[in-house]
Amino acid sequence: MLSLPVATANPRGQATSLESITKQIREEISKLNQVLHLLEGRAKKTTRAKAPRRKLSAAGRKRIVAAQRARWAKIKAAKK
Fold this sequence. Notes:
Elements: E1 8-9, E2 15-16, H1 18-46, H2 58-79
Antiparallel strand pairs: 1-2
């Protein structure tokens, strides 16, 4: 856990204000966010994108079903 005092002495002996501490924290958060975005960008480049699903028309589906039924009928007729 990070604990910062409200007012600290800097090398010149002046007290560091709360505003300057918050400014430093915001700068650090900004740097960390940039690093995070860079890392996420690399992760996205290494993953493969899913191919879009192919759509089958109703007519195409009917042709496939009819061909399969014909194959089944042929097999069924050969068994008799």
